[in-house]
Amino acid sequence: MAGRIPERFIDDLLARVDVVDVVGERVQLRKAGREWSACCPFHDERTPSFTVSPSKQFYHCFGCGAHGSAIGFLMNYDRMEFTDAVEELARRVGLEVPYEGRRREPGDDLTELYELLAGAAGHFRRQLAASEAAQAYFRQRGLEPATLERFGLGYAPDAWEALKSALGTTPARVALLEKAGLLIRGERGRIYDRFRDRVMFPILDRRGRTIAFGGRILQKSEAAKYLNSPETPLFHKGRELFGLWHVREANPKIARLLVVEGYMDVIRLHQAGLTQAVATLGTATTHDHAEILFRQAPDVYFCFDGDRAGRQAAWRALESVLPRLRDGRQALFLFLPEGEDPDSLVAAEGTAGFERRLAAAMPLSQFFFAELGRDVNLASLDGKARLAERARPLLAQVPDGAFRDLMHGELERLSGVSLHAPATRIATARRATASAPRSLVRAAITLLVHRPQLALAVEAPLVAAGLRQPGVELLQELLGLCQAHPAWNTAMLLQHYAGRDEAGALQKLATSADIFDDHAAAEAEFRDALAGLARQARQQRTDDLLQRQAAGELDEAGKDELRQLLAARA
Ligand SMILES: [Zn+2]
Hints:
The protein contains 24 helices and 16 strands. It is of the alpha+beta class. It has 5 domains: 7-92, DNA Primase, Chain A, CATH 3.90.580; 110-235, Alpha-Beta Complex (DNA primase DNAg catalytic core, N-terminal domain); 239-370, 3-Layer(aba) Sandwich (Dna Topoisomerase Vi A Subunit, Chain: A, domain 2); 376-419, no CATH class; 433-569, DNAb Helicase, Chain A. Helix 5 (110-130) packs across helix 9 (171-179). It binds zinc ion (ZN). The site of zinc ion has 8 residues, from loops.
């Protein structure tokens, strides 16, 4: 698989790309003072609150809070993965993305693999047209010809070398087919088709390219009912969702996604007009899945069987989404009646009936406490303690925010156990930093985030480095980073913090109004803030030494230092 993209390259890329161009190609921008503005592409609005800043190289919406660099814009607007967004921008400016740790072997060209998989999909479609039995299967399952075409469904005939002889015309192509997971090498070195006598479901990536297949056995036999492609350079099942490309094709804006269990559920829901259905590929929902799901839509509905296995799968889905539940994201659970699947329900109750069930789906919080409290007597102290014990490590994974507070409140209400775990205290302290009015640390960080070049005007390390105050370490780090990268702009600085806890707070500071018109005034303010912090650090040191002296613990060196500090203050 592709290796990591070095940070240097991201910096270089963001320095060459202009976010105004990238956004401007997709959204009509109007010049507004030093910035550009538009009606926000991420939420519905009549008056523009979306701005793009050429100097900071990022966009921000004052209505919905959307913000980011050119990379972030492509990820959110075109719904690209990080790597794809970087590739896309690199192409614009004629750079080749260097991947760390990727070896290029001869014939290791992914383009060839994509072409081969597209060829295989075509082969399976032609075989379907030639097989009455396979066509009959899809007919019995209620699929219309247009649906077969839309999902590119096909058939792998009951033969050992049908695909191999059709596409494996040279030894190099046979090797590629094996790499694509379509051929298997047997014990005696014989190479044959992996998929035999199966109806075939192409699995597409987010750009609509075939990357793998799922196959369902046509005749009853000993073989597994469902068979997927193995992991290949193109296919990582923990990161792919069946149907996602079709969802994006059918919906310009995706308000919700429905996660169902199988290929046929997805396809039949789409056919019925519920074009937001996707499925994982024979695996439980992973953290990667959760992130991909929420990047597409704020509301994700998990539809599972109401039986024991279904509830277990739902619980694993819950665990995978907990760390991804930032404010504004919602997970809901719909348990289907015994013996029903999404398709049979739509058939019996119509899409309106299915919509009613979705509207009554269980919010994650409800499912969470219902499952944890399942075999616990909440009337007893012991039971309450056990509930708190089970919930605490799970809730610790939920990102800081209103949803987390709500879950903690609910746990306290149910268990009577107060949840002031250290993690919560840290989070509260961090929030206090972000909102403390006019603290010097905050002022200095704000200025630095707006104008990273200010770091060049002062010495590092920070004189106030030892100061015990929230944010000092972050300020120290920012200062070091900005000095080490004199060409960084705001977007590049923020990109460096992507995925870290501080990212949100820094974004907020970066989008607060820049009150300084010229650099000199900002620099004076920045120097003042640092000088103020240095004073506070000296005061703190003085207090420490005075305390130790009062306790009779101060040695000669300490007394010397104290005298000097007091003298300097006088
Ligand atoms: Zn917005």
